[in-house]
Design goal:
The protein has 325 residues and is of the alpha/beta class. The protein has eleven helices and twelve strands.
């Protein structure tokens, strides 16, 4: 059974003050002494009370809180899982969520942000594109938390990201432990902080990198498949691959269906049926639900100082990364 969340009534009882006093402290209203405010804050910390931002808005006569979630492409499994986790976390705060996909087009991303803002949606969770985001400063009432990537041009942003550097190292070191040294890197936009860090982890683990085996800027599985075929046709082909996202891993699988070679490969991002293929797909996995919950928590609990949360990753061994050289 899910434990009951503490309420302001619980805080008032714990601090030995009235409910109105707790409300004043939580809503940062005047006429509360520093001593009483400290008692209330201590009770809040002890009980783990979190203000319901949506309820607070309704109490002020404002409309119900609506959170905008702007992502690259909701048809991708990663983004659909993220959307689900954000929606679930927002429901705990009686908030609604509206979605938008920009499909690798920064100009559409900006249009979505500005369109939502114009319609009163001023609380956003954004998976940023690789473009510059300094234009967001033109909307001073906009509150945004970024997920998976650090936005360019937004100093001091609140960001929830993965431990991408460690994930890149884990995947590469796993392949190296099987004797592989000619390891290809397959990824999308190198301007994205997540892609950059995964690639940096790859480089740190491997040391000497053959740049002819590094592929950036491929977004679709069919393009990945073409690049994998091209690399395997080299005079000195790679014996293993590191795919920095689930689309790249799927592209590798598609290419290998028609090839006699059986190189090892490790993907980043788990996906449905990854354990059904033969061999199963070894991946760097993480808790998508934690990404969404953390983003909602940051959004509804503003702070003066920027915050960055790193969600841990783990290697899930299923067979594709264990093929020896």
């Amino acid at each position: 059974m899910t434990p009951r969340k503490p309420t302001m009534i619980d805080v008032a009882k714990h601090a030995g003050v009235s409910l109105k006093t707790v409300s004043r402290v939580v809503n940062q209203e005047p006429h509360v002494s520093a001593e009483v405010a400290a008692k209330v804050q201590a009770a809040i910390g002890t009980l783990g009370y979190r203000r319901n931002e949506a309820a607070a808005r309704l109490a002020r006569g404002a409309s119900m809180l609506t959170i905008g979630l702007i992502m690259e492409n909701i048809s991708n499994e990663f983004y659909s899982r993220l959307a689900k986790s954000v929606e679930t976390a927002a429901a705990d705060h009686d908030a609604l969520v509206v979605f938008g996909s920009y499909e690798e087009r920064p100009e559409r991303e900006r249009m979505l942000v500005e369109s939502m803002y114009a319609r009163g949606v001023d609380s956003l969770i954004v998976v940023p594109s690789g473009g510059d985001h300094s234009w967001m400063a033109e909307h001073p009432g906009l509150r945004a938390v970024f997920v998976d990537r650090v936005p360019a041009g937004v100093p001091g942003a609140d960001v929830v990201m993965l431990d991408d550097l460690r994930g890149g190292r884990l995947a590469t070191e796993h392949l190296m432990a099987r004797g592989h040294r000619r390891i290809a890197l397959i990824s999308d936009d190198a301007r994205l902080s997540s892609v950059h860090e995964r690639a940096e982890g790859f480089r740190q683990a491997l040391g000497a990198v053959d740049e002819s085996l590094v592929v950036h800027g491929v977004f679709d599985p069919w393009r990945v498949s073409a690049e994998v075929n091209r690399l395997l046709d080299l005079a000195d082909p790679p014996t293993a691959f590191f795919a920095t996202n689930n689309r790249a891993a799927i592209g590798i699988i598609q290419a290998l269906r028609e090839r006699p070679e059986r190189p090892a490969y490790v993907g980043f991002d788990d996906f449905a049926l990854a354990d059904v293929f033969s061999p199963g797909v070894t991946v760097v996995r993480y808790d998508t639900g934690r990404l969404g919950r953390s983003a909602v928590d940051l959004l509804l609990d503003p702070a003066d100082e920027p915050r960055q949360i790193r969600v841990p990753v783990e290697l899930v061994v299923r067979g594709s990364g264990e093929t020896p050289h």
